[in-house]
Amino acid sequence: MGFAMNMKDNLARLQDFYLLSLKAPLGLFRRPFYGREIVEQMDYMGPGSLFIVLLVSLFIGMALSLQISAELAAMGLKMYTGKIVGMAIVREIGPVSVALVFAGRAGSGMASELGSMVLGHQVDILRVHGVNPVKKLVTPRVTAAVLMLPVLTVIGDGVSLLGGYYISVFASHQSGPFYWSQIRDVMSFKNLFSGLSKPFIFGYIIACVSCYTGLSARGGARGLRRSTTTAVVVSMILVIITDFLLTRVLMYVLGMRI
Asked: What are the C-alpha distances in Å from 166 to residues 59, 64, 176?
């Protein structure tokens, strides 16, 4: 009996999340339009997350270049460090690492903010005044996440490549122009499309999960803590799983065989 009730509750939550994920983007095309809220959320998620994205991306690029250079040097192939680093960052490591940082910083912020509004009955006040909470609160956050995460990913990729350049030239004593020539070779349509299409989906997933868990907060401070933690953990897990699925689909669509 208890198992059946838990299953029923889980299915109900899944249904609510599915409906929220559908209503959020549709609200962008219906009046009233909350342009100011979208700009405020873009400022919070974009410039607000920039420093930590730059810091993490820089050291990821440096660490990756350091490891790859050491391995390739043992085989006499150290000159290919730039190509391997560039492909790994552009196609996989860059989008995923920035998305995980985004989930930890912006996702937790969205969940805690909406959870505080629920516990403070501000969401109920919106309903009393005839305002749709999903359109007012969720749609701007989902829109901002979908727009800003790709921008942060591009910036993060560039900083990671600069970190790889620093290690390749000043630590591994490779040719700087040759490093960048390999990076240019990596910037093909297939690699760029594979790497830059993922952040749009990652941003949508992170925003929907964070907003849903925030609006589902119950039980005071402990419930707020639980909803914020759930938002970050679930977002990170879904980003990793979605990355694998997208990689497999994109490899098939772009004709990249293994």
From this structure: 11, 12, 9
Residue 21's pLDDT is 87
Domain definitions of the chain by residue range: 33-253
- Measure the CA angle with vertex 230, ends 143 and 53; round to 5°: 55
Evaluate whether 96 touches 239 at the Cβ level (below 8 Å): yes
Dist CA 98 CA 92 (whole Å): 10
* 39-57 pLDDT tens trace: 999 999 999 899 999 999 9
Give the pLDDT band of residue 65 (cuts 50, 70, 90).
Answer: very high
**What 3-state class would DSSP assign to 46?**
coil
Q: Is 173 helix (H, G, I), strand (E, B) or coil?
A: coil
Q: Is the dihedral of CA 43, 212, 240, 108 positive or negative?
A: positive
